[in-house]
Write a structure and sequence with these properties.
By secondary structure, the chain is mainly beta. The protein folds into two domains: about 110 residues, no CATH class; about 270 residues, Methylamine Dehydrogenase, Chain H, CATH 2.130.10. Helices cover about 5% and strands about 40% of the residues. The strands form eight sheets. A four-stranded antiparallel beta sheet has the order 1-30-29-28, with no helix packed on it. It has a four-stranded antiparallel beta sheet with strand order 2-3-4-5, with no helix packed on it. A four-stranded antiparallel beta sheet has the order 6-7-8-9, with no helix packed on it. A hairpin with a 4-residue loop joins strand 19 and strand 20. The longest helix has 6 residues. The two termini are about 20 Å apart. The model has no long low-confidence stretch (mean pLDDT about 95).
């Protein structure tokens, strides 16, 4: 890996802790109420858990984790200002809606759909209503909660079939795959997955691809692909070619490429490519020494990669925990763009959680799980 960097990095800060040592307290808490009642943690200890760029208004939309329930923001790349979109004031919002986790989708009519995740435990299960699907109209600034797909279960991630107006989601703490039809306002439980995927994907034929874990480790020692065909209303669990065992250790991100293939970033920081037609998967490489991998294709045809998870307790001080790469699908080559490290602040991103690209060529990376300070949005400007 080369050392010449092609990005200038700036930390964009929504919150700061009053006392960073309070973050360490969180490691000792054992209940939802302990977090909720601690003012500094409730208001200021956040994580950026999803980012979505809207080319129509040229704003970045951010889903965050926050016990304050103020979990949906826009960020203006020109003014560098955040704006709360007031999810916590929407009719139907409640205290257990504390996160938008990999759950923002842009429809063709410019409406943004999102879903809420949770951080509470089993004792709160029956009193927590369930994760919400909401829609937001950027033109009118109107946010509306439209459904609770599966009562008491919150939503880990959603993807959208814009042609069929279907939202697919995966829930937790009980892991179920569901289909929500916007036109009819109806939900169908597609069954358990025994694993909460970070982000499934829809191929060019309208099929949903995700993954599951078998109940019996003897039958299935790791993850397996899952396919749902909406035309047949049927879930397929395989068997798949042996090459598909590449995902068994874990999947961080799945992305449909312009070539019709599905690109997969693994939990261990490896890149794979899956062909949904012949069902074969191939290993493309591991560009970085660390784990995790989030993906987004740019208008230049390059696959942009945010990768890395570092020493959480040190808050990114070393500066080499996370990095940006590209992968040229034609040349089959990785290129190092730089570490996600703000040289002026002398702080870096600790764990990547999502990536977005603007039409002006700016890379934004969502940071989560920092145990030394609150998390930042990382702006990486290509030089």
């Amino acid at each position: 890996m080369g050392t010449k960097e092609k990005i200038k990095v700036k930390a964009r800060i929504l919150r700061e802790m009053k006392d960073n040592s309070n973050v360490r307290l969180a490691n000792n808490f054992t209940s939802f109420d302990e977090y909720f009642m601690h003012e500094d943690l409730r208001k200021n200890f956040i994580g950026f858990t999803t980012v979505l760029y809207n080319p129509n208004d040229r704003l970045l939309y951010c889903g965050i984790a926050s016990y304050e329930n103020d979990i949906f923001y826009s960020f203006n790349p020109k003014t560098k200002k955040f704006k709360s979109l007031k999810y916590n004031r929407a009719k139907g919002a409640e205290k257990y809606d504390v996160k938008v986790h990999r759950s923002l989708c842009l429809d063709v009519d410019c409406i943004i759909y999102g879903a809420t995740a949770c951080l509470h435990g089993v004792p709160e299960y029956w009193q927590a209503p369930g994760g919400k699907i909401f829609k937001y109209d950027p033109k009118t600034n109107k946010l509306e909660i439209i459904a609770i797909p599966l009562p008491h279960l919150y939503i880990q991630t959603i993807v959208m079939d814009t042609e069929r107006k279907i939202i697919y989601g995966c829930t937790y703490p009980q892991w179920h795959l569901f289909r929500y039809d916007i036109r009819t306002n109806r939900t169908k439980d597609l069954g358990p997955t025994l694993h909460a995927p970070h982000r499934p994907v829809i191929d060019n034929g309208g099929n949903l691809w995700s993954y599951y874990r078998s109940l019996s480790p003897v039958c299935n020692p790791g993850l397996e692909l899952l396919k749902y065909n909406p035309n047949k209303d049927k879930v397929y669990y395989g068997p798949w070619p042996k090459s598909c065992q590449l995902i068994r250790k874990g999947v961080d991100d799945m992305l449909l490429g312009p070539d019709g293939n599905i690109y997969i970033g693994s939990v261990s920081g490896e890149l794979m490519r899956f062909n949904p037609k012949d069902l074969e998967m191939e290993y493309l490489g591991k560009p970085f020494h660390s784990t995790r991998m989030d993906l987004k294709f740019g208008s230049d045809g390059l696959l942009y990669i945010a990768t890395g998870s570092g020493k959480y307790e040190e808050g990114g001080k070393e500066g080499t925990d996370t990095a940006i790469f590209t992968y040229d699908v034609k040349k089959e080559k990785f290129e190092f763009y730089g570490y996600i490290y703000d040289k002026e602040r002398k702080e870096g991103c600790v764990m990547v959680h999502d990536i977005a690209l603007t039409s002006d060529g700016i890379i934004y990376v969502a940071e989560s799980d920092n145990h030394a300070r609150t998390c930042y949005l990382w702006e990486c400007i290509i030089q």
